[in-house]
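Schema walkthrough. Field components (list of strings):
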Amino acid sequence: MLLSHPRIYLDATGEYTDSLLIRRNKVLAVGEDARHAATSQDPRLRPDGACLFPALGDAHIHLWGLGLRPGTIDLRGLDADAALDRLADAASGGDGWIYATNLDEHHFSADQQLTRRELDRLFPTRPIRIQRVDRHAIWVNGEALRRAGIDQHFQPGDDGHAARDDSGELTGLLVDGAMTPVLEAIPPTTLTEDRQSFLEASELLRQQGIAFCTVARCPVAHIEMLKDLADAGELPLYVDALVAGTDDGLEGVLRSGPFDDGGKLRIAGIKFYADGALGSAGAHLLSSYRRGGKGLAMHAPGFLKRRIPQLMKGGWQVAVHAIGDAAAREVLDAFQDVPSQRRRQLRPRMEHAQMVDPVDAPRFDELDVIASIQPIHLRSDAPWAPTMLDDSQLSRLFAWRSLLPAALAAGSDYPIDDLNPWHGIATAMTRRGADENPFRPDHALTRREILSAYTDGAAFASHREDYLGKLHPGFNAEVAILDVDPFRAEPDEIWETSARLLSAEQVE
Ligand SMILES: [Zn+2]
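Field assembly_structure (string):
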């Protein structure tokens, strides 16, 4: 096929051409070469849109767990009344549990609230569970409380909170540890449901111009599902799965070794968590939070230092979640114990790298560690971060420029955060929080830097930089059609970008 458009970007440097010759899903030639090499056998296609762009990657996404279920009702951005309307529409008919997610009471007007009472009016007999956007709280109705065995005498432990109204009645809002009885009463997802969630989320990604992703934590039990989808030619995305490093079945996975056939599925990474999340004061810090405590380390001292070199010796890429600066240092120390040639070959990754001591920042480049960042977390966290961290701690938060020239790979952390990569790209450029105030704008990334992190950077982190992330000759023809030109548009316009992928049928 001869694809033509006045602006076909070849990569994140902004170089562009007007023609691509595509055969069997590969870019064969660009520009004048493409026009000359095309024959009458090659169908012509001239898509609309402001430009064509290499399809993006999402370097950190969750496609299972975290409450993801097929048919979950998305309440992102809605106030209480709109949320109730959406629930009434979406959950009419049927029986059994109703699942909704991404509710954020910051969108409620002052006189609005959402309690068990409103939910019971809509759903007197069906249990409903609504997740807060950060997954640290849920709203439930009376039937859900009943099934969870929660009555008016319920006393959560120190790690949780159950909200009560003026008369002392439970409102149905349960925070952290208080959610446990409800979460345990909900039937676990089946593999069939997980397969459905995976396919639904993949479709959402494709609708944003994303063709490849790293699954940031893949349970061992889901590996077969991915392999079956890949064998059947039904994987909607190129998937790079990081296997959960503490899963029971891991030994079997390690015995069969890393899997990468150069096709759509790669299972060659192992994922660990060094600490928790900042919002719940679980990120492991070098100095105390404003309210005291330094967060928590997930593993016993020395575990990562022992385990990481072992796994990398076996040819595995290792990725470790590290949000606090103490966690980042622990992870860099562990990577440092791996021979440098092996590091260069396997590309260890730090997931989030959200807070890094200035002493440690240059070590990413020195140790060939990829910084896997999620710019959209800045938008979510910046408004409240100053309530938890002092100025010196804030200065090392989301300090992306200090990590350069290390390789950056960008992603969303969906469903924890907004999966729209154009929101992430705009946020990386403006560093605006959800309150619209810029947070340390001196660490803003240029459009080239952030577009690279979402294309060739994400491909590099997945060892796919030879065929994804660019549209050079020899690359796979994974093309996004954008209605905004990201090299010329203002960040606000980039935020509004809509994108779609040129479908495989079109490029056959
Ligand atoms: Zn994550």
